[in-house]
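Is iron/sulfur cluster placement plausible here? Inputs below.
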Amino acid sequence: MKDCNQCGKCCTKYGGGGLSASASEIDAWETYRPDIASYVRDGEIWFDPENGESLTKCPWLRKLPGKVKFVCEIYDDRPNDCKYYPVRIADMIQDECEMLEPRDLAKPKQAQKKLDFIMSDSRPPLGD
Ligand code: SF4
Ligand code: SF4
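Reply from A.M.:
I modeled the complex. C-alpha cells:
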C-alpha cells in the first residue's frame, strides 16, 4: 500500500453530492467557519451559497498549478466523511485509488489491516 499521492479521484467522485456532514460538524462550521457553513442547505452539502443549487463538484478542491495533484482548501475542517476515506479496499478498487498496489489486490484482507493501520490517526478500524 502506497501513501496517498493526492490524485484527487476520491474528492472528484464523492465531492459532488456523495458526501454528508453530521449536525455537530455543521454546528461547528456555523460557529467557527461560516464560509464553509454557507455551502450547507438543510443539513446537506455542498450547495452554491448564491443561488442555492446543488454543486456537481466540491468547492474546496484545488489543483496545484502545473501538477496532477490536488489539495483540500478546508483540510483541517473537512467533513469526517473525507477524513475517514479510504475505509474499504473494495471501495478503493472501485474508485481506482492510487494507494493500491498489485499485492494489495492479491491479498485484500492483509491490505485492509495495513490500511486500518495507516488510517488509525483518522478513524476507527473497519474490523473483520
Ligand atoms: S472537502 Fe476537501 S477532502 Fe472533502 S471532497 Fe472536498 S476537497 Fe476533498
Ligand atoms: S483516490 Fe486514493 S490516492 Fe487519490 S487522493 Fe484519494 S486517497 Fe489519495
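Short version: The helical segments are 9-14, 23-32, 34-37, 80-84, 89-95, 102-106, 108-118.
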